[in-house]
Design a protein that fits this description.
The protein has helices at residues 3-75, 83-96, 130-142, 144-155, 200-214, 267-336, 343-374, 387-404, 424-440, 499-509, 541-544, and strands spanning 100-106, 112-116, 162-169, 172-182, 192-199, 220-226, 231-235, 246-249, 256-262, 383-385, 408-413, 420-422, 447-455, 458-465, 513-519, 523-531. Helices cover 51% and strands 20% of the residues. It starts with a helix and ends with a helix. The strands form four sheets. The protein has a five-stranded antiparallel beta sheet with strand order 2-1-5-4-3. Strands 11-13-14-16-15 form a five-stranded mixed beta sheet. Helix 1 runs antiparallel to helix 2, helix 1 crosses helix 5 and helix 7 (343-374) crosses helix 10 (499-509). Among the domains are: 216-264, no CATH class; 380-531, Heat Shock Protein 90 (2-Layer Sandwich), CATH 3.30.565. The protein is rod-shaped and about 160 Å long. The structure holds adenosine-5'-diphosphate (ADP). Adenosine-5'-diphosphate is lined by residues 433, 437-438, 440-441, 465, 467-468, 470, 478, 483-485, 495-501, 524.
Amino acid sequence: MKKSRLFKIIIAFFLAILLPVLSVTIFEVIQQDKKEALLESIYERQLDTILFAVNQNCWDNFNSWVTELSSQFSKEKNALTQPQKIKSKLKNFVRSYSPIHSGFIRTGLSTYTTYIQGGKDQIPDAALDESSLKEIEGVIMEDRIAILKMADRARQGYVNPHVLRWPQEGDTQTTLLLFPLVNIENAKTIPTLAGIFIDDLTFIREIVGRKFNSMQESSFIFGVRDVATAKIIYTTEEVNSDIFERSEAMWIIPSLQLEIKLAGTTLEEFSQSQTQSNFLVLTIINFILLVSIFYIIRYVYLEMLLAQKEKDFVANVSHELRTPLALIRMFAELMEMGRVRSEEKKQHYYRTIMAESTRLTQLINNILDFSKIESKRKTYNLKPSNIRLIVNDIMDFYQYHIQQKGFKINSSLELNLPLVQLDSEAVRQAVVNLIDNAIKYSNGNKSIHITLKRMNGTVVLSVQDFGLGIPVKEQKKIFKKFYRVENSLIHTTKGSGLGLTLVKNIMVQHKGQITVKSKVGEGSTFSLVFPVMDKNGEIDGSNSDR
Ligand code: ADP
């Protein structure tokens, strides 16, 4: 078979399938770090977007409070001049929102109206005490410029509270949010201010926490950190470490920081595992591809080998047919010309014609049987038979032909063998093929032994030669169709590579087997092993042997 053709097929596979997939794999490997970084930045952005949404929500909440309180006073014209009204409106407002711990309103007349939400140590509806009021006034004066700026922005439509961290009492952290309640045109005067004290933790739980939970992002954990102490003061789930992936200062309470991380893993690990699983899939695809290409090439190779063997077969068979035909024709012509006078010679010519035409028949039978076997049309007619008679018959018939070639056959055929279920024609064909091979591969050693014996419930028929022998690694292959061992005789000895295939098939049909024992340079023994079907079918020497 032309190796170059197989090579071309391999190259074609490589270029068409393997090369593109390998390139993608190599590209993936090179790009892995970049991809991980890209994936990480995409996830970071996604986390930032979530934090942004939560922050925005807190801001919106505050704005709704501002609108709510402002509208209370804008509805009634002189409400801000009536302390009782201020007090009751403020009371209603603070009561409506649990994060608002207390509130006050500072009008232009410097009057304060205060209200305290009922807390642990606090009396509901009580007013802030004098010292607290003084403290508030002190802070307002201190931050006067910032408060004026805030009022200025409010006039332009941006309500941005002035935020103050209130000195801590106990566990709870309080933040004061100051914002203008009514805008006055005079930019130099502090406007009417509303102040609301926010209980940080309640605010986080009720506003931030609720928003986090409403997003139903179970793969994330949210947290809030106190910037001053750098401690996490709130998380949506229990965490082992207080290191979060992304953080953003809370707009409304800048002393707090919103944080987020992936549950159970880090962004780096997550993006790494994503790219690694991509890589794994690619590796598996490559592997499957390699295995399938290997099998396709192997299949193509075997098909090409078979095609080549079929070609050789045609050449060999034509040669095998031509040789006996030429001999038959030559002897027939000699006889026809009447030139052969001696009776002995005539007999010799007749026998040669007979033997050669038998060989021809055998060859043609082999081919026909093979084609029948291939198309599963071959049938065998098995009946209890005396195998010894068949062997004797074959030896009688071929004796002359064998002797002509200078061969000597020794036989040792056991008596009293049991009957064997067999198709006598098929067994004859098998034995003739074995003898034929023993002659062809004799390598000058012209002795053949045929033995027939009973062994472990079987009848074994062996044909032994002392010729070329068969290497061990070839001994299984010789039974494959068209297979011929590559040795010194392959070119000079013609053959179809079908003989042993047929013998094997015949033996399978007889539920028996063919075995070979061979040593290179010492010869080969092929044995046909027939099972004894009927234990009571033993025959005695008188009617079974001759
Ligand atoms: P062929 O027509 O080539 O003889 P077979 O199927 O009968 O085909 O045999 C297959 C191959 O097995 C042969 O080509 C030969 O190489 C090897 N072989 C068969 N019988 C013998 C033997 N008795 N001694 C050595 N080699 C043998």
